[in-house]
Design a protein that fits this description.
Blueprint (H helix, E strand, L loop, with lengths): L10 H4 L7 H16 L6 H8 L4 H7 L2 H27 L2 H14 L1 H7 L10 H24 L5 H21 L10 H13 L1
InterPro entries: Homeodomain-like_sf, HTH-type_TetR-like_transc_reg, HTH_TetR, MT1864/Rv1816-like_C, Tet_transcr_reg_TetR-rel_C_sf
Protein name: HTH-type transcriptional regulator BetI
GO molecular function: DNA-binding transcription factor activity; transcription cis-regulatory region binding
């Protein structure tokens, strides 16, 4: 008697939906869909199909597409702040925080795409405002270090320079348009770039 092949996991299992964890499953499915097709292509109907739930489930949890993408952005900024804060605590080094920024973008492409496109989200949502502010505070810590090294200690310019550098590098890398050699390690290059600014 042959043993039947194990059944493949359902979409709901794959996204972690187990008795009450539907919101988590829908967010996971949304991030997956964004990474595959981009945020503008995401639909609540497709999201329900991916998660293996009723068509009404996403609307029940998020209201509409803007509500869904706002939740993705909130989660993204929280994860982002966690990554930056952990790097500050471990290293106290602006260059390493810049590398953490790049690493986050590469590891969380779905979140990253939504976080910096305010037209996709409810920008006045309290949880999004709070999460964004927390991430900004972590970035300002690096700007303060840079400002201390510049003539006049202009913190605003230091903030703009630091953020523009690491965000631009990350966005180019995520989009695949950064002209790096095929065998180059993005994190290693990011470290060199941020240390150059830190001079």
């Amino acid at each position: 008697m042959t043993t039947p092949a194990p059944a493949s996991r359902s979409a709901a299992d794959r996204h972690g939906y187990h008795h009450g964890d539907l919101r988590r499953a829908l967010l996971n499915a949304a991030v997956e869909a964004i990474e595959e097709s981009g945020a503008t292509a995401v639909s609540l109907r497709d999201l329900a199909r991916r998660a293996g739930v009723s068509h009404a489930a996403p609307a029940h949890h998020f209201g509409d597409k803007a509500g869904l993408l706002t939740a993705v952005a909130v989660e993204g900024f929280e994860l982002f702040a966690d990554a930056l804060d952990a790097t500050w605590e471990r290293t106290g080094d602006f260059a390493e925080v810049g590398v953490a920024y790049v690493r986050f973008g590469l590891d969380h492409r779905g979140h990253f795409e939504v976080m910096f496109q305010p037209a996709l989200c409810r920008t006045d949502a309290a949880d999004l405002t709070a999460a964004r502010a927390r991430a900004a505070d972590s970035l300002r810590r690096g700007a303060a270090l840079l400002a201390a090294r510049t003539d006049g200690g202009d913190r605003q310019i230091a903030t703009l320079a630091a953020w523009s550098l690491v965000h631009g590098f990350t966005a180019l890398q995520v989009s695949g348009t950064l002209p790096l050699p095929a065998d180059a390690d993005p994190e290693s290059v990011a470290r060199q770039v941020t240390r150059f600014l830190g001079r």
